[in-house]
Structures are given as structure tokens and as C-alpha cells.
Amino acid sequence: MEMTRGKQKIEAQKKNAEKNQKSKGSQFEARAVALKITCSICKVQLANQNQLGDHYSSKHPKEKPPNDSS
């Protein structure tokens, strides 16, 4: 690996800082995109229909989970 000096070093540091900052995103935004299904009883958000079925069986055992079309 070559050693960089002066201006090259500063430019490389700036470039790396920008690269690292762009890759970081809001976890809230990523979570909102991933969680698309909502429980109609307790309003918890789930990622898919299988999780919804598991949620109903453990949290609302007396209730029937909604159909896949909803």
C-alpha cells in the first residue's frame, strides 16, 4: 500500500468520510419500508403474513387472523 501525503491524504479522508456517511440511513425509514402488515387489534406492524399468523396465535388466541387478501 502506498503512502499518500499532503493534499492526497486530505482528499482521501474526505472521500472516505462522504462514503461512510452516505451508507448510513435512518433505521426508522428502513423499518417503515419493511413492516407492511398491521395487526387490526393491537396495531403492531409485521413484515409478512406468516408473522401475522404467529402473532395472532400467541397474542390473540381467541381471535381469527384476517385472510391473506387484507
Automatic annotation (TrEMBL):
The keyword Lipid metabolism does not apply. Pfam families: SERF-like_N, zf-met. Residues 1-27 are annotated as: Disordered. GO terms for cellular component: cytoplasm; nucleus. GO terms for molecular function: zinc ion binding. The keyword Nucleus applies. Residues 1-21 have a biased composition (Basic and acidic residues). Keywords: Cytoplasm, Metal-binding, Nucleus, Zinc, Zinc-finger. Residues 37-65 form the C2H2-type domain. It is found in: Cytoplasm; Nucleus. PANTHER family: GEO09665P1-RELATED, ZINC FINGER PROTEIN 706. This is C2H2-type domain-containing protein. It comes from Coptis chinensis.
